[in-house]
Specification:
single chain; 376 residues; alpha/beta; Rossmann fold; Rna Polymerase Sigma Factor, Chain: A; 7-stranded parallel β-sheet; 4-stranded mixed β-sheet; binds NADPH dihydro-nicotinamide-adenine-dinucleotide phosphate; binds magnesium ion
């Protein structure tokens, strides 16, 4: 009998995590769940634990489920070599530490948490190479590229698609005055709040350019962004001979999640319907409006600077997004604050992991201090 793949999910109570459990439920003969971890939604984690019976659980708050051991930290999950693969689906900076620990322990990673690569892509990818660990992207664009690439040495260019978010065809003025509610209404995807705000400012695309650079080793000048509102073409690559291979499919995160956790196998699993070109009818593409969405250029700039520049924009952006969600700043200020932090940043070109965490901490402290000055 085929051996079950042993998996843990960090962030099982989130948008990606809950969809991953739906995938696993359909493929229950293929997976054994070692650990489920969440943050503060302990009610949902408890329900998940009772249903899926992992060996271990972890939450950011006290939790107890009969017959299941509660762990003290995410590191306990990442150090458990029973795991064949860990799905890192928490949001923001908390993904980095357990990802690095899991890699050091030789455990493959299905990576949804793009911030991990934006913060410390060079260190993470180098460690993965050293320990022979596969990092399979869950992010739909990178999962698409992963599926398109046959021989990476013959690929000229990566083409990342962007839905354009809720303000694609709104004026800059409308975007400047956008409420939290309008910002959280994404036209295509139902996601966690942080990434939904990033999608509205297009910083999400900026972070994805940096993610692509690290995952596939392409120069920033060879990574292009195109707006494609229908989210059917999930991304594409151009080979040296001009042939373009795109991965297309219905906009459902179940597909890239399933791909990443079952790779290199494919199963019917959670597939709900067959793709129909005639139902889609048309596909549109347009250049991104860099004036309305300056975050994309900012991310290119930080990416080209390298070192701690991307750590800096990740930290500044994340803190500014939290402040926007709390009603403290306007949507446009997320960019302004992030740009200012990058302008003031003292670059470390080849940082070690302690320097990365220190830059992350100090940028966040600076941003929070700025907010405290604005409102006192
Ligand atoms: P959510 O906000 O929906 O989920 C975040 C998860 O992280 C929740 O399970 C949350 O737990 C958990 N978490 C928060 N704090 C901690 C902590 N201290 N320790 C352990 N777990 C914690 O985010 P998404 O699922 O939308 O996104 C997750 C990641 O995937 C992000 O990096 C995002 O950029 C990326 N991604 C998401 C996509 C999507 O479609 N959603 C698409 C592509 C990438 P709790 O809720 O219990 O507090
Ligand atoms: Mg994406």
């Amino acid at each position: 009998m085929e051996k079950k793949r042993k998996i843990s999910i960090i962030g099982s109570t989130g948008s990606i995590g809950t969809q991953a459990l739906e995938v696993i439920e359909k493929l229950e003969d293929k997976f054994e769940i070692i650990a489920l971890a969440g943050g503060s939604n302990v009610e949902l984690l408890e329900q998940q634990a009772k249903k899926f019976r992992p060996k271990y659980i972890y939450a950011n708050k006290p939790i107890k489920v009969d017959g299941i051991e509660t762990l003290d930290s995410l590191d306990d999950i990442a150090s458990n070599t029973e795991n064949d693969i860990i799905l890192v689906a928490c949001s923001g900076k908390i993904g980095l530490r357990p990802t690095l620990k899991a890699i050091e322990n030789g455990i493959d990673i299905a990576l949804a948490n793009k911030e991990t690569l934006v913060m410390a892509g060079d260190i993470v990818m180098e460690s993965a190479r050293k320990h022979g660990v596969n990092i399979i992207p869950v992010d739909s664009e990178h999962c698409a590229i992963h599926q398109c690439i046959k021989d990476i040495s013959q690929v000229d260019k990566l083409i990342i698609t962007a839905s354009g978010g809720p303000f694609l065809h709104k004026s800059i003025e409308e975007m400047k005055n956008a409420t939290v509610e309008q910002t959280l209404k994404h036209p295509r995807w139902n996601m966690g709040k942080k990434i939904t705000v990033d999608s509205a400012t297009l910083m999400n695309k900026g972070l994805e350019i940096i993610e692509a650079h690290h995952l596939f080793g392409f120069d920033y000048d060879d990574i292009q962004v195109v707006v494609h509102p229908q989210s059917i073409v999930h991304s594409a690559i151009e080979y040296v001979d001009g042939s373009v291979i795109a991965q297309i499919g219905l906009p459902s995160m179940h597909i890239p999640i399933q791909y990443a956790i079952t790779y290199p196998e494919r199963y019917e699993g959670i597939k709900s319907k067959s793709f129909s070109f005639s139902e889609i009818a048309r596909l549109d593409f347009e250049e991104p409006d860099f004036e309305k969405f300056p975050t994309v250029k900012l991310a290119y700039k930080a990416g080209k600077m390298g070192g701690t520049a991307t750590t800096c924009i990740n930290a500044a952006n994340e803190e500014a997004v939290f402040a926007f969600l709390e009603g403290k700043i306007k949507l446009y200020q997320i960019y302004e604050i992030t740009k200012r932090m990058l302008d003031e940043h003292k670059l470390i070109e080849n940082p070690d992991i302690d320097e990365i965490f220190e830059v992350d901490r100090s940028v966040r402290e600076k941003v929070k201090f700025m907010f405290s000055q604005m409102y006192c």
